[in-house]
Amino acid sequence: MAKHGLTVAKAKKSEFKLVWGFVHAMEALFDGRGGFVEEWWTWPDDDKDYKMMRKIQKELDCDEDDEQIVLEFVKRKFREANYCGSFGRILFNCETLIDNCCDPKLDHLEFKPSIMYAERIALEKVEKIIARDEKKGRSADKIIESIKARIEESKKEDEE
């Protein structure tokens, strides 16, 4: 059976940090620190998002309750978080890993049985090869060669 591979650029820790920064800022705006968008100016003075909002307020030369400040803040945080496609890369990475590594029968994240039990499955296969080859009177060296040959065959199948 032919298998198809997919190489995907892995999201970096820095991209996750940017995306989480966006998510946390949006939570703070809409249901967090101040409770309402209109109360961002009550956030702590040392909060980095508060400082950005104040900077935007000065740039726009407007009152604290001007919605343009919040709109510009959201735009800047989004651009920062989506630098070089971070949102898409992170979502695609997660989707790819879930589709390829997680058990599709479950409603929570857990490895596919073939991954979860890979060590045991491999050991069982090796034990069968050893038992079969010992019955044929093969030496340990010949058994190891047989196992290596099967591994190489498996690699070739994966490449096809």
What key phrases describe this protein's structure?
single chain, rod-shaped, 160 residues, 2 domains, mainly alpha, 66% helix
What features would you describe in this structure?
The protein is mainly alpha-helical. It folds into two domains: 13-95, no CATH class; 118-159, no CATH class. Helices cover 66% and strands 0% of the residues. The mean pLDDT is 83.
**Which value, in Å, is the CA radius of gyration?**
27 Å
What is the averaged pLDDT score?
A: 83
Number of H- or I-type helical stretches? 7
Total number of strands: 0
Poorly predicted ranges? none
* SS-based class: mainly alpha
Fraction of residues in β-strands: under 5%
Mind describing the biggest β-sheet?
Answer: none
Give the count of structural domains: 2
Helix content: 55-70%
Compressed to H and E, one letter per element, the order equals: HHHHHHH
3D shape: rod-shaped
SSE blueprint:
Blueprint: H1 13-31, H2 48-60, H3 67-81, H4 86-101, H5 113-116, H6 118-135, H7 140-159
Compose a concise summary of this entry.
By secondary structure, the chain is an all-alpha fold. It folds into 2 domains: 13-95, no CATH class; 118-159, no CATH class. It has 7 helices and no strands.
